Structure formats: structure tokens, C-alpha cells
């Protein structure tokens, strides 16, 4: 709240040039007018669709692969050098490659978001499996659990916090890369809206786009935190027990 108050008062008292940073209330009014006109929501929806596409694809591929790498040490030794090489590749430098392969449409934007999303999920999932409490594993072994039951009952539940952490980090990256992807070869989306507003010196709309992206990120993080609490509710039950 203090930040928003400073944002509101600094331009009004001339501490900051209102041309480049309008008062927060003026931006809200402009955003409401733009939304009421029906012009804002198509940009929001298409951006959410692109970010969700790349993010979902990253989750459904990185989580199973991370579980496999963490559980099967030999597979990890074989694939880790290649994965480390690919992980170090700058996604922005790959953007022209994706454009050459897929054009400038939806697939390219989803692909570049996927590339950014997949690595934090993969690494967190792999680490979560590898570094499960050894005492739990030894205890499970003494009970005679099979490898599958050990994985299902001990490894996977214990790795969930690490998996969710990777997913939360990936969600943040997905919105960052969304803006970059929509600034090139796009005619819709919040990234396009921000870039177009900059060219037209429509500063209010520029900040509207930035604020909406921030709100989407906050909402996504909140949802993932709730999901983590639901999936790890058994921890609270153990403590109460």
C-alpha cells in the first residue's frame, strides 16, 4: 500500500514527471475504460492461452522426466551432460531459430515459453527425488517395500514441495518470456500491447499491461501455493499425530 501511495503522490507533487509515470489512479481509470470498451480482454486471453500452453507442456514433460532422472541413476548419468548443455542455451538466442522452424505464430511463442519453463521444473523435480531423507528410505526398506511402493509412498510425496517450487519458478519465467515473445511478430497479447503503447507514447496503457501481467503472476503463484498445501496436507496430519 505504501508503494501505491508513493506512486499516486509522487507524480502529483512533481517529484516524478507524470508524462512517464502517471498517478496510479489515472492508470486504473484508463485500464477500466479500456476494459469496458472490450479491447483489453482479447489481449489478456490470448496471452494467458500462450503462457498456459507453454507452461502446461513444460509441466507434463519435465515432471515425469525429472522423476525418472532422480530415480534411475544410470539414466541421469547418460542424459545429464546433454541436458546441462541444452539448459545453458540462452532462450532469447533461440528465438530466431524457433521463428525459422515454426514461423511467427502461436507455436513459436509456446515453444519459447516451454523452453524457459522446462528447466526449473526438471531440475527441482530431479533434486527433490534425489535428496529425499535417507532415513525414510532406510525405514521403508526395513519394512520390505518394493521399489514401486517405495517410490509411490515415500519418494513422490517427499519430492512434491521441490516439484511445486520448480513449477512456481517456471510460472514466473513463463510470464517474463511471454512479453518477449509477443514483442516480435505478434499483433495481440499483453506484450504486444505494452510495446505498441510505447511506440504510440500511450503511457497509461503501457502500465495497464504491466500491472495485469503482475496480477496474473501473483494469482498463479497463489494458486500454486494453495495446491502445494493441499498436496502436502499429510505433513500437518503427521505433526498433529
TrEMBL record:
SUPFAM superfamilies: MetI-like. It is a multi-pass membrane protein. InterPro entries: MetI-like, MetI-like_sf. It comes from the Bacteria. The keyword Transmembrane applies. The keyword Transcription regulation does not apply. The chain crosses the membrane at residues 51-73, 94-117, 201-225. Keywords: Cell membrane, Membrane, Transmembrane, Transmembrane helix, Transport. It is found in: Cell membrane. One of its GO terms (cellular component) is plasma membrane. Residues 44-224 form the ABC transmembrane type-1 domain. GO terms for biological process: alkanesulfonate transmembrane transport. Probably part of an ABC transporter complex. Probably responsible for the translocation of the substrate across the membrane. Belongs to the binding-protein-dependent transport system permease family. This is ABC transporter permease.
